[in-house]
Design brief:
By secondary structure, this protein is of the alpha+beta class. The chain is 55% helix and 9% strand. The strands form 3 sheets. A 4-stranded mixed β-sheet has the order 1-3-4-6. The chain has a two-stranded antiparallel sheet with strand order 2-5. The radius of gyration is 23 Å and the shape is globular.
């Protein structure tokens, strides 16, 4: 892919990208059937699957070459995230790679076990994280947990891992109290460290959005296959507008979410200060649309869709739960509003007032319109 393709709104993939995507799709198809997903629900984690995934280089690929990795771009990582979502895989890959990329940028990636995934690292992805204990999506299985504590970015370790709490996303989630950690290491402090942490949160949002894209696409496929084989009045229910139109909406959601996630990933990597609203926008869009699409996929299958054994049910609960793992998406939506308001304020303050007036341009609104057009 040309470095500037996504800057120019070209979302095509190179042959290398397609090969990576196909490799991971085949991997999850072989090693993560729905039975594996169901079996891992009590803990939210399949250790064997995780070890196989790490052996493929899925964690080290995310690190820069200077840190012993393969230097994959964030766009590359969205391809893996999509396949994780498609398989609803019980593997904390997104949280781990975002955390180790942050550690690498802060110069705190000290162990090859962390880079290779033998030691798991969790990240607190909430926009509104405050002091005291907080829910961490992979807190019950992590060897290290990276959180923001006031002005400090801190790595925590616990002699006894926090206890998993039940959640609709079937994640290895746990309450974590930084004050109760056995070891508390400050790995960054001040404005520069906070910016790097904010970047890690944006990467988490982009990759989670990409995972939800894959989840919606598979939920759509499950619903479409059912609709093609279920008949009413002698015709497949897929020919009815009440079914075909919602399926078309799902397809639109997939393409829109995919393009937005890839565009956001490109800007995060190449011009992070140019379009900072894209990463949270991708997340907020997919957080809302994934739940809606997965709900419709269940409804299309009628009574079967709401049964515990239906695959569509597994996709529905994760579509809702994964989007909430980073806290209330409304907090991320507020950040988008804050970014846009700051940009508009800066834009308005840079306008030059016109040096002349006319009877038709006395009102503040007309003056502002003149300045906007001239700018």
């Amino acid at each position: 892919m040309d470095r500037y393709e996504l800057r120019r709104l070209d979302y095509s993939l190179s042959d290398d990208h397609t090969a990576v995507q196909s490799a991971y799709r085949q991997f999850f198809k072989s090693h993560c059937p729905i039975e594996t997903v169901r079996a891992a629900e009590p803990s939210g984690f399949d250790k064997s699957l995780w070890e196989r995934l790490c052996a493929m280089g899925a964690t080290t690929m995310a690190l820069p070459e200077s840190a012993g990795g393969d230097g994959a771009s964030l766009v590359d990582l969205t391809l893996v995230a999509e396949e994780i979502g498609r398989a609803v895989a019980p593997a904390p890959w997104i949280d781990h790679v975002c955390a180790i990329r942050l550690l690498a940028r802060l110069g705190a990636l000290e162990s090859s076990d962390v880079a290779e995934g033998s030691a798991l690292v969790a990240l607190d992805p909430r926009e509104d994280a405050g002091p005291g204990r907080r829910l961490i999506p992979t807190g019950s299985i992590a060897d290290h947990i990276v959180v923001r504590d006031g002005q400090d970015i801190v790595r925590l370790t616990f002699g006894t891992r926090p206890v998993k709490v039940d959640n609709i996303g079937k994640l290895p989630m746990a309450w974590v109290d930084p004050a109760a950690a056995d070891t508390r290491t400050v790995i960054g402090t001040g404005a520069a460290a906070f910016r790097e942490y904010q970047r890690a949160l944006d990467e988490w949002r982009v990759l989670t959005a990409a995972a939800l894209v894959g989840l919606v696409e598979e939920a759509m496929t499950i619903a479409a296959e059912f609709a093609k084989t279920r008949y009413t009045l002698g015709v497949p229910i897929s020919t009815l507008q009440a079914i075909s139109h919602p399926l078309a909406n799902m397809a639109i959601t997939v393409e829109a979410g995919r393009n937005l996630a890839r565009r956001a990933a490109w800007f995060c990597d190449n011009e992070p200060d140019e379009r900072p609203e894209l990463a949270p926008s991708a997340f907020v869009f997919m957080a809302e649309e994934a739940a809606r699409a997965a709900t419709m996929a269940v409804h299309i299958q009628g009574g079967l869709g709401v049964s515990a054994e239906a695959a569509a049910t597994a996709y529905l609960v994760r579509a809702r739960g994964w989007a909430l793992a980073g806290g209330d998406p409304a907090a991320t939506a507020k950040r988008i509003a804050h970014i846009l308001a700051e940009r508009e304020s800066a834009r308005e303050s840079s306008y030059e007032q016109p040096k002349w007036t006319s009877p038709a341009s006395n009102s503040p609104m007309r003056t502002r319109l003149f300045c906007t057009r001239s700018a």
